[in-house]
Specification:
The protein is α+β, with helices and mostly antiparallel strands and 354 residues long. The protein has helices at residues 3-22, 26-37, 42-48, 55-86, 91-94, 112-125, 140-143, 176-185, 225-239, 293-298, 315-323; strands spanning 130-132, 137-138, 169-170, 189-198, 210-220, 246-250, 256-265, 282-291, 307-314. It folds into two domains: 2-95, no CATH class; 112-344, BirA Bifunctional Protein, domain 2 (2-Layer Sandwich), CATH 3.30.930. It is built from eleven helices and nine strands. 32% of the residues are buried. The structure holds 3,4-dihydroxyphenylalanine.
Length: 354
Amino acid sequence: MSEQLNDDLRKVTAEAEQLIATAGTVDELRQAESRLTGKKGTLGQLLASIGKLPKEDRAEAGQQINVAKRDIEDKFSLARARLEAAAPKTAAEQTFDPTLPGPVVPRGSIHPVTSVIWEFEDILSRLGFVVFGGPEMETDYYNFDALNIPETHPARDQWDTFWLDNDWLLRTHTSPCQIRAMEKYGAPLRVIVLGRCFRYETEDASHANTFHQFEGLMIDRDISIANLVAVMKLMLSELFHHEVKVRLRPGFFPFVEPGFELDMGCLLCGGSGCPACKHSGWMELIGCGMVHPNVLRAGKIDPEQYTGFAFGLGLTRVAMMKYGVADIRSLNSGDLRALIRPEQRFGPAIIEKE
Ligand code: DAH
């Protein structure tokens, strides 16, 4: 191909770019384009001049000119699209169509733990329980001693504690609120506490140093284990929107006697065994028992006249079960993807697979 043609094509392309850059309207663009690519335009004339070339050079020259022409036309149509998009709409285009769906406004959502807190508060307050709160910074008296865990007691090792400089601590469970509630209200008493607890834990997918617990306490005359089981069964069935089975196994907690671990029949497999329940058909969920007489005494309630049950469970764990959260760390991460989607708000209350 001749140097001359090459040079000419480079010049037209540069000229096209210059015209595109300075054109302010779609009309100006159109005129500029036809000046370059139209029959009488620069490219048209170049095409017409092919006839003057030696025969063997004509095909190649024609091809080169057409490639350049297409490239220039593409540049113009892109520029036109840009200008059209930016141009103000005509009155006809601006008319409001009330039949079109409105713009989608992103909806806010809530944290799985918040959702479970609200649900438990709702369920238990319908049974006459008062929502009670206590400090997250506690004394060792409320966190341990008053709960029948003296300094020398081996159970104290279970609660790896963040101690503060002033000899207080970050509460390791919500149980200290049992004592505070008894001191405040006396008997009979029905309270629940839903709040943050802290333990000196190495974090992994199922352990966090900051987590939520849910504590309940019911004290009255003639309260028995049957009352405990009835309340637990009702509470879990309401939470999971599904009739649940429960069973008690002996368990040790210094502040209850007898103490139990309460298991819930696995909702995923219905009890036949699956990975979520480690093939046992049951999920360990709640620590509970009859309030130890020493604890009643610490709360200034006479164990000769009153009995009570108490229970405690990991709210964070329940939220993970209910909303199928695989890694506890995502719940404290601030990552908005951990929030529940609106369609999950009221279910399906089914535990997802591991
Ligand atoms: N405080 C216990 C813990 O953190 C849970 C617990 C067990 C609470 C039994 C109770 C109870 O009220 O009766 O593991």
